[in-house]
Structures are given as C-alpha cells and as structure tokens.
Design goal:
Layout (H helix, E strand, L loop, with lengths): L6 E9 L4 E10 L4 E5 L6 H8 L7 E6 L2 E3 L4 H7 L1 E4 L11 H7 L7 H15 L14 H14 L4 E5 L7 H16 L3 E5 L3 H7 L2 E6 L2 E6 L6 H9 L16 E10 L9 E9 L3 E5 L6 H9 L10 E3 L2 E2 L5 H6 L2 E4 L14 H5 L15 H14 L16 H13 L5 E5 L7 H16 L3 E5 L3 H7 L2 E6 L2 E2 L3 E2 L5 H7 L8 H10 L1
Parallel strand pairs: 3-8, 3-9, 6-7, 7-8, 13-18, 13-19, 16-17, 17-18
Antiparallel strand pairs: 1-2, 1-4, 4-5, 9-10, 11-12, 11-14, 14-15, 19-20, 19-21
Helix pairs in contact: 3-4, 3-5, 4-5, 12-13, 13-14, 16-17
Length: 512
Amino acid sequence: MNPGLRLELTGISKQYPLVRANDRVGLRVKPGEIHAVLGENGAGKSTMMKIIYGAVQPDEGEIRFNGEPVRIGSPAQARKLGISMVYQHFSLFDTLTAAENVWLGLDKSLTLPQVSARIVEVAQTYGLDVDPERPVHTLSVGERQRVEIVRALLTQPQLLILDEPTSVLTPQAVDKLFVTLRKLAEGGCSILYISHKLDEIRALCHHCTVLRGGRVTGEVDPTKESNASLSRLMIGAEPPQLQHRPQTAGDVVLQVQGLNLPRQDAFGMDLHDIRLEVHAGEIVGIAGVSGNGQQELMAALSGEDARAAPSAITLFGQPIGNHSPRRRRKGGLHFVPEERLGRGAVPTLSLAQNTLLTRTQHVSRSGWVHLRRVERMAQEIIERFNVRGGGAGSSARSLSGGNLQKFIVGREISAEPRLLIVSQPTWGVDVGAAAQIRGELLKLRDAGCALLVVSEELDELFEISDRLLVIAKGRLSPSVPVAQASIERIGVWMSGLWDRPVASAAAASAEA
C-alpha cells in the first residue's frame, strides 16, 4: 500500500466466457500524473478502465483510491469518488440535446439552463466547440466526443480516464486538448490516457504501463522511448512499412458533378456544388474538421441519402444519385461508415450474422440463409484480418473497438469492391492493426480498385493517398497530388481558405 497514490490496483482479474480480459493486473497512478495505458487491440485496456469506473466488476483483486480500499459498484459511485471517464464508444442518448446528456451525468444541484451556461464556459476555456442545444443525433463522431469530454470536465474529477480521446480530433484540437490536460494535471488531477498514437504518449504522458494479453508486461518513461521501442513493447514488433508505389490511374469510376443537397435537419450541413472524381487504381483522400459535411457527403455517396439528382453521382458512367445502398453495392460500391456500432455492425448480432448486412451471396432468392457458409465467410475475415475475439459466433459488442473496426473493414475489402468508400478507417486501432488496414487498402488500389478515404488523421491521408481534397463548410477544395501537398497547406484549407495564396491564408487562419 502506498498512501501517496491517487489510484492503486492490485491483482485485478476479469474472466469472460471466451477470454480472460485482465489477468492479475496492477496499476499505480500518482496525483497530477498523466499516465498512459498502452496495448494492442484486445489487450485488456478498456476492461481495466471500466473496472476503475465501476461499469464492470472484477472477479478478484483490490482497488485503492487516495489510499483507501474501495469497491466501485457503479459509474455513479465512481463519479462521487471523483472519477470520470470518456469512453471510446460514446454513452450519449441520440434523442437528447448535448446539454441534457451532460445534465444526466451530474447531480441535480444545477438546473438545465445553468448546465448549458457551464458547458459554454468550459468549452470556451478549453477550446472545445460544443453547442449545448444541438440534439446528439445531429452530431458527427468528433462533435460527440467533445460533448463527452466537456461532460467529464464539468465533474471536476480527481481522476480522469480518457479512452482514445484524440481519435477524431484535428491536430489543432489535439494541441488545445493537451493544454487542457496539462492544466488539469498541474492542478492535481490524475489522468489515465489510453491511445494508440505513440507520438502523443511520448509528448504528453509522464509514465506508461504496457498491457499484452490481459497482463502487465512493462512500465516505462515514455519520454525516454522511441516509437519503435514502444511498438515492440506493445505488439512485440515494429509495424510493417507500407509500400506505396506510384502507378497510373485508370478510368473514372466515381464522378460527382454539381451535387447540391440541403441539410436534412437544422444542425446539419448543406452540400454546395460538390465535384470530384475517383479513378480506378487510386486512393483519393478527403481531410477536414469534423462536422463540415463529411457525414452528409458519405450519406449521399453510400445511398443512405438518395435525394441527389440521378446524374449528380455516376458509377462507371451510370447515374446512381437516387439508387439505394443495395443497388449501389450490386454495382460494385462498398462503404465503411465512421460509426462502428449501430451503423457498421448491429451490437447484439454475431459477427457471422453481421456479415449479412452487406454480403448476401449466401442468401437464396427465397430468403434461406446458408448458415455454415456465412460462418465460414466470417471466420475467413477473422483470420485474414487477425480479429481477436471469440470467433464468428461472438457478438459485435463483445469485441474491442479496434478489433470490430478490423472486422468491418475486412468485411468490405474481402467483398472485392470496384469502388470502396471508407470513413475513418483506423479510428481507435493499434499501430499494428492500423498498418495492416492501410496496407490492405493499398493492395486494393494496386489491384485496380478505386478508393475514397475520409479521415481526420492527416498523417494517414498523406501515407496512403494519391490525391487529397479538403471539405470545409459543405464545400470541397480542388484536388492536389500528395507530392505537392503539405500539412501546412492542408491545415489552411481546412479553414476553407483554398482560394487564397498559402502565406496570406495562413495568416488569416491564425488571426481567426
């Protein structure tokens, strides 16, 4: 026992039916310490955090908080102790506003208008753009994450748990978040920080505990480590180097010409004169700050929103603007949405059943499902993409976020699409899995597939794309070859300033 610790775990274990998520793990966090928990997908990080937050009960072991043994039976009890958590998969009610969601997590000493005012105050203080009156169902993934972070900050925690907090934030927003976290730590708040972004851990964190296979395998000072050494600790090897060979693009596969769509709700984004082309054998990347029309564009391209004029979107020269998602899939267009649970997969269904959402070749015309073939197809995806879980019969919600992402991306890649549209392909996956997914996208491209990738990870877009565009306020920039692009230029364009020279646009962006 160390009375000077904010949090101490000793011998914590958690067994699920098909996996031992935590195996006698220990953890020590000091007051004012930013402590990273590092591990590959499925290593047991999220289970450990849920135990600390009271959302999951351990089978054995002891938890001490501020030197006192505690049994944290629920998140409400955790919050009373001074523990707050921001989940990787958000815990927000879609039909409520941001303020109402925040209010639910607080004691009722404040009225809803007072909570709304506090949200605005905290959001401005920490540079987090949150509108308290917006319904959550109108928010992008990045905007929902900001609501979660503001909700946690309003509780004035002694221990703040952040699970992949920057996975959908822009570099500028990440910088602001780090300023916030350092201020909190200086004030004595301890922070448990889960991230697969090794640069972030090395820049931000004071200490790092490494998990592999549910066990603690090491503790290091991340400031004294390299990305390569942290990768070796986490996955036992360095991630493979991507082979991005230049090649000549083929015929136009997807063409969007003069796409104009009014927003479907008061908080959406109008699309204005969207124009783009994607050729066979190339990856076109779209960068942008979350909430600038990415959701609306993806809905229009995937067929979820079929209001476009038929000729505004063409696939191999055929108008598809008003086609359903199923009809577009028959034409060779496959889509990976940014939301894993609820949109990319049904949480309660097995992985085998989830393959049927987009892969229907084993369903007869009369509606009979060839179960063994479906299970075999799911198992092939699991093996090819190294999805760790309980196998084809496991429910989607039982997988870690990164493993579910690998399965969903793998499901669409293995369909051998002629056009693949992917939103946030490596959100929340470890460095090894991210390298694997990016490598598979490059293999598809080299095989002649056309790919459109929307990502808020600029490094990712620069690594895999042949051309880049930026979306801002519902408009698309001109495309630029990656070889002629730069982080500075794309960052300026993310403010919608692509019509100005880079120097003057950068100055205008800085003033804003």
